[in-house]
Amino acid sequence: MRISVTHSTLYRYNHPVYLEPHTFRLRPRQDGTQWLHRYALEISPAPAGQTECLDQDGNAALQVWFTELVPELTVRSSFEVETLRENPFDYVLTVPAALPLSYAGPLHAALAPYLGTSDIPQAVREFAEGIGQEAGGQVLAFLARLNGHLFEDFGHAVRAEGPPHAPEFTLREREGTCRDLAMLFCAACHTVGIAARFVSGYEREAATQERAYMHAWVEAYLPGGGWRGYDPTQGLAVAQSHVVVAAAADPRLAAPATGTFRGSATARMEFAIELTVSGEGR
Q: Has residue 207 got a pLDDT over 90?
């Protein structure tokens, strides 16, 4: 499947401002699950300098800096990706499938940032443990049931801006945006020892919506399968319909754009996303 996206964002300031260095994570990942056929990024006004790099989670990042006052900033990314994974379960677990999941020493150390902390709220722990019991203490059944619960039992909202709510807030309200549900999914995984991280990207259903938005979901690390996607907003395991752009333990480190400005101005953001899908392969 080929998915093409044009994503334009305008930051408008009521007074000219000095932009501090910005980081953009807009280039889709290229690996065995998706192939990047083309990509372009336009920034106006043009930055004084820029450098491409891999960030701490292996995401493609662009660092840019400016030297002049600007009244607005426009960022436009466009790309075409071919998604390759037809079967999200094309692997065999290489560790015991029982909860809590246990990772071998070196792997456990590498996954430490994605295993959460010990201060998970009690309500979230009880929620996860209850799902674990429903799943018979089995890893893959737990992930499937967690995905299903968040899809079927929670309301799904749209909130264009702002960070995700805390997992305990989403659990209490029984409603959330895609990024809210993703964070609750991660916290539930951490409760039972499953490494999980927040993912930012696009999904094909946006092509049928009146207004398209970026999407968020989760990747869980499964020995034998590596990072595997789960989308609680749609209640499915991720295969060909999603395009990964960035993934991180902290959603702020997977944001498409981060940066600040100097000045007393206020800022307003406007964005537009165009997404098209075709069934053609390589």
A: no
